[in-house]
Automatic annotation (TrEMBL):
Protein family (similarity comment): Belongs to the Tango6 family.
Domain RNA polymerase II assembly factor Rtp1 C-terminal as annotated: residue spans: 696-805
InterPro entries in the record: ARM-like, ARM-type_fold, HEAT_TANGO6, Rtp1_C1, TANGO6/Rtp1
Protein name listed in UniProt: RNA polymerase II assembly factor Rtp1 C-terminal domain-containing protein
Organism name: Pichia californica
Organism superkingdom: Eukaryota
Domain named TANGO6 HEAT repeat: residues: 257-405
C-alpha cells in the first residue's frame, strides 16, 4: 500500500471514530447549517420528558422574558411559536434537491423532529382543543409518549388557546405543502392528523368556516386516501356526542370514497391488505354496508353510484390482480343480492353497451346522414378491450352458485363475444382468450340456453354495427379492434349480403369446433349436449324453421353435424348416447309422417294404391338430404360398444322402431339399418356407471386455467362426498381422496381457489371428523410451506368455530396441545418441533386457534386451563413481540366471554386480572394497554351478568 493510501485510510479512521457507538449527539462535529440547527434544538429541548412543568422548562431554555413568568398563556404561546419556527427553518434547510435521492435529515436527527411534533401535539393541541374533537391518546401510538411524565399537560381556556392552534394550523399546513424532506418524515406520522383535527374543529367552531374548510382541502390534497379514510373512521367512532362535528366528519369520510382510489383504499383498510393479513370474507359485508350507506349529502344517488362503480370497473380492468378482483366480485355479488338493479344499471350496462351497442332508430338515422364516413366509431378499441378485461375478471371469481349473475351479465353480450372471437381469428389476432371466456360462461351459466344461443346464431347476421381495426397502423396500441357503425348495410345489396354470410359459414363452424374442443376437455357431456341440440334443431317442425332463414340454418346445422362427427368420431363412438337419442327421435317422426300421409291418401281414395305408393316415395325423396347425412351416424351406431345401460335401452328402442317400419326404410340406408336390427343386445355386457360424478371430468376441470372452473370442480367433488355418506367402498371417490385433493389446492396462487378450498375442507371436516387428526398433523409437523400451514390453521379455526360445542375431549386435547406446542416451539421443553413453528406467523396462528377453542368449547378446556393460563402469563410477561402479547390478551378475553368463562377460569382469575391491571398501565405497547383495559371491562360485565342471573 502506498504512503498516500495509508494517509487516506488513517484520515478515514479518524473521521469514523467520531461516530462510534455510544457517542452522544452533542459531542459530534456539525458543520452544515441544518446540522448546527439540530445541535441548537437538541440543547434547548434535551431533558424535557422528565419535567413536571414542560412549558416552563422550555420557556426558560428558549430564553423567554422573565417578566412574563406568571403568564402561563403567554409562555405556552411563546414555546409553541419557537418550536414552529424551528420546524419552519428545518423545512427550508431540508428542501429537496432536484434529481437527487439524498435525504438531507440524518437518521439520528429524526428523533429530534419527533420530539418537536410531540410537544406541539400535547402542549399546543391536546391542551387546548376539547377531547371529543381529538383521537383519544390511548388509541394512538405516539413516539416517546410511553413515559407518563411526557404525557403531562394542563388544559387551558379554549378562547385563550385559539391563536395558538391557528398558528399551528397555518405553519404545519405550509410544511405539508412544501417540497422538503421534513414533509416526507412527518406526513405519515404524528402531526398531520392533528393538524387536520385543528382544521375540522375550527371549521365548525368559527364564524369563518369556509376559510378553515379550505385548510381541510389543502391538507387532504397532501395525504393518501387510505390515511384519510383511516383517520376519519377513527374520528367518527369518537364524535357521536356532537352532531355538527360527526356530520362534517361523516361528509369528509364519504368524500374519500368518491376519489378515484377511494374504494381500493377502503378495501385495503377494512381487510388489512397492507398488513398482509389473511382475508376475512365476512368483513366484505361491512364494506358493502359502507358503500350502500355513505352517499355524501352534496351529491345525488345516481351520480354517487356512477362514481362508485366506475372505480370498481376501472379496478376490474386490471386482470392480473387476483386478490383485489376476488374481493371486488364478492362485493358485486353481495350488492346484487340486495338490489340487482344497482349492479345492472351502474356496472353491467357499461359492459353491455361497449360490447353490444343498442342503436335505436334515431341513432341509426344520424349515422345514415353521414354515409360517406365509413369509420364512425361506436366503441373505441380501448373501451372494447377494457370491457372484455372486466368480463374476464368477473368470470374468474364467480361460481356455479352465482349462475343468476352470470346469466344476467352475459346474456346480452354472449353473441357479441362469439363474433368478436371470429373477427380476431380472421385478423390473425389472439382469439383463444375469447373462446376460453365463452367456454367458462357456458360451464358456469345456463349451459343449455347459451349453447342454443350460439348454435342458432353461428353466423353474424346483425347489420347495425361491425368490428374493425386500423389495419395499416403498425402501432399495436392504435391497432386495437373497435366497433363501428355498419355502413356496408346501406350500400351492399341483399344478394351480396347473403353471399357474405355463406362465406362465413365454414370459417365460423371451424371456430365452433374449437369451442367444442375446449368444452369437451372440461367435460365430455358437453359434446353430447351440443350434438343433440343441433340434431334436434335440424329435424324440428316448429314455426322457427318456416322462417326465411330456414334454408341457411339447415345448411349450417348439416355442416355442423358433419364437422362434429369428423372431429370427434372417437369420442362419439365411446359415448354414442346422443346419436341414439337423435336416431330414435328422428325415425319416430319420420315414420309417423310417412304413415300419416299414407293413411290420409287411403281415406281420400281407397282404390288409388299407385298414388299412395307414389306419395310415400315423394316424401322419402324429400328427405334425401337428411338421409344422406344419417349414413355416418348410423354407421357409428352399427359398430358401437356399450358403456352403460342407458345406451343399451336406447339401442333396443331404435331396433324396435326400425323393425316395425322396415318396409318404409329408404334404400340408401336399408343395409345399415338391417345391420343395427341384427345387433344382439342380450349378449353384450354393460358397465353400470353412476351418473353422479365423473372423476375424469373433475380432474380436467381442476387443472383448468380459469379459477372459477377449478372452484366449480372442487364444489362438485365436495358435494358428492358429503351427499353420499354411506358405504365408502362403493363411492367413486373416497372422502380421503377428496380431502387430499382439496389440500393440494391450498397452494394455489389464486385467492378465489384457496379460499373456496378452505371452505370445502371445513364442510367435509364437519361431515366427517375422523380426518381432524390428519389436519392437525399437517399443521404442526409436516413439510408443507408456511403459507399452506397457515391456511390449514385457518381451516382448523373455522372448523372449531362451527363445531366447538360438539367436539369430544380427545379432539379438544389434541388441538390444545398442538397450539401450546407451536406457541412454545422455541422452548427447550418441546421435542420434535418443526422449525416452521418458530415463525411468528405460525405462533400467531396457533394463538388465534387456541383463543377460538377457549371461546367455543365450553367446559371441555377445564383440564387444560392451568397450561393455558401459564402460557398466556408467560407470553405477556416475557415476550417482546407486541403482536404475540396482544394475541395472549385476546385469549384471556376469549376465556372470559365463554358461556361458562368464570367457572372455567376459577382460581386463575385473580392472577390474570392482576396481570391485566398491571400491563394496562405499564406496557410499552399502547394497543396492549387498550386491549387489556377492554378485557378487564369484559370481566366486570361477566361478573355483573353472573350476579344478576343468580
Amino acid at each position: 500500500m502506498s504512503d498516500i493510501d495509508k494517509q487516506k485510510l488513517e484520515s478515514l479512521k479518524k473521521e469514523l471514530q467520531k461516530f462510534k457507538k455510544g457517542d452522544r449527539l452533542e459531542s459530534r462535529s456539525r458543520t452544515t447549517p441544518l446540522g448546527k440547527l439540530f445541535d441548537e434544538i437538541f440543547k434547548k429541548i434535551n431533558g424535557y420528558q422528565s419535567q413536571s412543568d414542560i412549558i416552563t422548562y422550555l420557556y426558560n431554555n428558549f430564553d423567554g422574558d422573565s417578566n412574563n413568568n406568571d403568564d402561563r398563556i403567554y409562555k405556552r404561546s411563546y414555546v409553541i411559536e419557537k418550536i414552529l419556527n424551528y420546524l419552519d427553518q428545518i423545512k427550508i434547510l431540508s428542501k429537496k434537491i432536484p434529481n437527487s435521492n439524498i435525504i438531507s435529515i440524518p437518521l439520528y436527527d429524526i428523533r429530534i423532529i419527533g420530539d418537536l411534533t410531540n410537544i406541539i401535539i400535547l402542549q399546543g393541541i391536546y391542551s387546548i382543543i376539547p377531547n371529543e374533537f381529538l383521537i383519544p391518546l390511548e388509541k394512538r401510538k405516539i413516539k416517546n409518549f410511553k413515559k407518563n411524565s411526557s404525557l403531562i399537560f394542563n388544559k387551558i381556556n379554549l378562547n385563550n388557546g385559539l391563536p395558538i392552534i391557528e398558528k399551528i394550523l397555518i405553519t404545519m399546513t405550509n410544511i405539508f405543502e412544501s417540497n422538503s424532506d421534513l414533509k416526507d418524515l412527518i406526513l405519515v406520522g404524528t402531526g398531520f392528523t392533528d393538524t387536520l383535527s385543528i382544521a375540522i374543529f375550527l371549521t365548525i367552531n368559527s364564524n369563518n368556516s369556509q376559510f378553515y374548510m379550505n385548510f381541510i382541502q389543502r391538507l387532504e390534497f397532501q395525504s393518501s386516501t387510505y390515511q384519510l379514510l383511516s383517520f376519519y373512521s377513527i374520528m367518527l367512532k369518537n364524535c357521536h356526542q356532537n352532531l355538527k362535528f360527526s356530520s362534517l366528519v361523516s361528509l369528509l369520510l364519504s368524500n374519500q370514497l368518491m376519489k378515484k382510489n377511494g374504494i381500493e383504499s377502503l378495501i385495503d383498510l377494512v381487510l388489512g391488505l397492507r398488513e398482509d393479513e389473511e382475508i376475512d370474507i365476512s368483513k366484505i359485508q361491512y364494506i358493502v354496508k359502507v358503500l350502500l350507506n355513505s352517499k355524501p349529502k352534496n351529491i345525488n344517488l345516481i351520480n354517487y353510484y356512477k362514481n362508485i362503480f366506475n372505480q370498481i370497473y376501472n379496478m376490474l380492468i386490471l386482470v392480473n390482480r387476483p386478490l383485489i378482483n376476488t374481493i371486488l366480485v364478492e362485493i358485486i355479488v353481495l350488492i346484487y343480492s340486495k338490489n340487482n338493479r344497482i349492479i345492472k344499471d351502474f356496472l353491467f350496462s357499461k359492459i353491455w353497451f361497449n360490447l353490444n351497442p343498442n342503436l335505436n332508430d334515431d341513432y341509426n338515422q344520424d349515422f345514415k346522414k353521414n354515409i360517406e364516413n365509413d369509420s364512425i366509431i361506436i366503441t373505441n378499441g380501448i373501451d372494447l378491450n377494457n370491457s372484455f378485461n372486466v368480463c374476464i375478471s368477473i368470470i374468474r371469481s364467480l361460481n356455479i352458485k352465482d349462475q343468476e349473475i352470470i346469466n344476467e351479465l352475459f346474456n346480452p353480450i354472449l353473441l357479441s363475444l362469439w363474433y368478436y372471437a371470429n373477427y380476431q381469428k380472421s385478423q390473425n389476432k389472439d382469439y383463444n382468450i375469447i373462446l376460453n371466456l365463452i367456454k367458462n360462461i357456458i360451464i358456469l351459466g345456463d349451459s343449455n340456453y347459451f349453447i342454443d344461443l350460439i348454435i342458432s346464431n353461428i353466423i353474424d347476421n346483425q347489420m347495425t354495427w361491425m368490428f374493425d381495426n386500423n389495419k395499416n397502423d403498425n402501432d399495436e396500441k392504435n391497432n386495437l379492434t373497435f366497433i363501428k357503425f355498419n355502413t356496408n348495410e346501406l350500400i351492399i345489396s341483399k344478394e351480396n349480403q347473403i353471399l357474405r354470410l355463406f362465406d362465413k359459414i365454414d370459417f365460423n363452424i371451424e371456430s365452433f369446433i374449437e369451442l367444442i374442443t375446449k368444452l369437451n376437455d372440461s367435460d365430455s357431456l358437453y359434446l353430447n349436449k351440443i350434438l343433440i341440440e343441433i340434431l334436434n334443431k335440424l329435424i324440428s317442425n316448429n314455426e322457427k324453421n318456416l322462417e326465411k332463414n330456414s334454408s341457411i340454418n339447415k345448411i349450417i346445422y348439416l355442416k355442423l353435424i358433419q364437422a362434429i362427427i369428423e372431429n370427434f368420431k372417437l369420442e362419439i363412438e365411446n359415448s354414442p348416447i346422443s346419436l341414439l337419442i337423435f336416431a330414435n327421435t328422428y325415425f319416430n317422426q319420420y315414420f309417423d309422417s310417412i304413415n300419416s300421409k299414407f293413411n290420409l291418401n287411403i281415406v281420400q281414395d281407397i282404390d288409388s294404391d299407385d298414388e299412395d305408393n307414389e306419395s310415400v316415395n315423394n316424401d322419402i325423396n324429400n328427405n334425401d338430404e337428411i338421409i344422406t347425412f344419417l349414413i355416418p351416424i348410423l354407421e357409428i351406431i352399427s359398430t358401437l360398444n356399450f358403456n352403460n345401460n342407458d345406451e343399451k335401452i336406447q339401442l333396443e328402442n331404435l331396433q324396435s322402431i326400425l323393425n316395425k317400419n322396415e318396409n318404409l326404410i329408404p334404400q340408401s340406408i336399408k343395409y345399415i339399418c338391417e345391420k343395427i336390427i341384427k345387433i344382439d343386445t342380450k349378449v353384450v355386457k354393460v358397465k353400470l356407471i353412476s351418473n353422479n360424478l365423473n372423476i375424469e371430468t373433475i380432474l380436467k376441470q381442476i387443472n383448468d386455467q380459469t379459477p372459477s372452473v377449478r372452484v366449480y370442480a372442487l364444489d362438485k367433488l365436495t358435494n358428492y362426498t358429503i351427499n353420499n355418506p354411506n358405504n365408502e367402498e362403493k363411492k367413486q371417490v373416497s372422502t380421503k381422496y377428496t380431502i387430499n385433493l382439496l389440500l393440494s389446492q391450498l397452494k394455489d396462487s389464486e385467492p378465489f381457489v384457496y379460499l373456496n378450498a378452505i371452505k370445502n375442507i371445513v364442510n367435509i371436516l364437519s361431515f366427517d371428523k375422523s380426518f381432524l387428526n390428519q389436519l392437525i398433523e399437517l399443521y404442526s409437523t409436516s413439510k408443507k410451506s408456511i403459507d399452506e400451514k397457515l391456511r390449514i390453521g385457518e381451516i382448523l379455526t373455522k372448523f372449531v368455530n362451527i363445531n366447538g360445542k360438539i367436539l369430544n375431549n380427545i379432539q379438544i386435547d389434541e388441538l390444545i396441545n398442538i397450539c401450546i406446542n407451536i406457541s412454545r416451539s422455541n422452548s427447550s421443553l418441546i421435542e420434535n418441533s418443526s422449525n416452521d413453528n418458530n415463525d411468528i406467523r405460525m405462533k400467531m396462528s396457533s394463538l388465534s386457534l387456541l383463543g377460538t377453542i377457549c371461546h367455543q368449547t365450553g367446559y371441555s378446556i377445564i383440564s387444560h386451563i392451568s397450561q393455558i393460563t401459564d402460557l398466556v402469563h408467560g407470553i405477556i410477561t416475557f415476550e417482546k413481540n407486541p403482536e404475540l402479547k396482544r394475541a395472549a390478551v385476546v385469549i384471556i378475553n376469549d376465556i372470559v366471554t365463554n358461556d361458562k368463562g368464570l367457572e372455567i377460569i376459577k382460581e386463575y382469575g385473580e392472577k390474570l386480572q392482576l396481570l391485566l391491571e398491571y400491563i394496562s398501565k405499564n406496557d410499552k405497547d399502547l394497543l396492549v394497554c387498550q386491549m387489556s383495559s377492554a378485557t378487564l371491562d369484559d370481566i366486570a360485565i361477566a361478573f355483573e351478568n353472573k350476579f344478576q342471573i343468580n
